């Protein structure tokens, strides 16, 4: 089992101009932490062009398109807290979670995240968290 989420994957209090910036920041964390090659970030943008990665509850989960798996070194998640929010069409995301799933783990990761983000109370806590430890406590120990 590989740990896919830790304090180094978290960015708090980020100001973003638009969803393209959100994808860039979420992808940059995945690249810097060694989960993906830089080309994966391009694939995240392409996914957004095909269909929005905004999933409701003030959360977006940018991830790559089909065929982008070749740019994933290992599964990982980035977490970007955006207190002022960033527009995704008519909706506003305050939480951006970049997802990279290797060897078919993508859906497993999304299901584990959904268990956390489907609870409005968790979203409020994630939006208001002041420390990375608070984020880790809410999201928990994610492994695949």
Automatic annotation (TrEMBL):
UniProt-listed Gene3D superfamilies: Mannitol-specific EII, Chain A (3.40.930.10)
CDD domains per the UniProt record, alphabetical: PTS_IIA_fru
The UniProt record lists the keyword Kinase: yes
UniProt cross-references to InterPro entries, sorted A to Z: PTrfase/Anion_transptr, PTS_EIIA_type-2_dom, Sugar_PTS
PTS EIIA type-2 domain ranges (all copies): 3-142
Keywords, sorted A to Z: Kinase, Phosphoprotein, Phosphotransferase system, Sugar transport, Transferase, Transport
GO MF, any single term: protein-phosphocysteine-sugar phosphotransferase activity
Any one of the GO CC terms: plasma membrane
Source species, domain of life: Bacteria
One Pfam family in the UniProt entry: PTS_EIIA_2
GO biological process, alphabetically ordered: phosphoenolpyruvate-dependent sugar phosphotransferase system
Physiological role: The phosphoenolpyruvate-dependent sugar phosphotransferase system (sugar PTS), a major carbohydrate active transport system, catalyzes the phosphorylation of incoming sugar substrates concomitantly with their translocation across the cell membrane. The enzyme II CmtAB PTS system is involved in D-mannitol transport.
UniProt protein name: Mannitol-specific phosphotransferase enzyme IIA component
Species this protein is from: Anaerostipes rhamnosivorans
């Amino acid at each position: 089992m590989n740990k896919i989420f830790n304090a180094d994957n978290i960015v708090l209090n980020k100001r973003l101009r638009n969803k393209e910036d959100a994808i860039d920041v979420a992808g940059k964390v995945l690249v810097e932490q060694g989960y993906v090659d830089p080309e994966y970030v391009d694939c995240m943008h392409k996914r957004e062009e095909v269909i929005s990665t905004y999933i409701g509850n003030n959360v977006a989960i940018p991830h790559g398109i089909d065929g982008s798996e070749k740019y994933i070194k290992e599964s990982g998640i980035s977490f970007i807290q955006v207190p002022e929010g960033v527009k995704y069409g008519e909706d506003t995301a305050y939480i951006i979670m970049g997802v990279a799933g290797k060897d078919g783990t993508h859906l497993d990761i999304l299901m584990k995240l959904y268990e956390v983000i489907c609870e409005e109370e968790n979203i409020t806590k994630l939006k208001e968290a002041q420390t990375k430890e608070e984020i880790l406590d809410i999201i928990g120990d994610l492994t695949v």
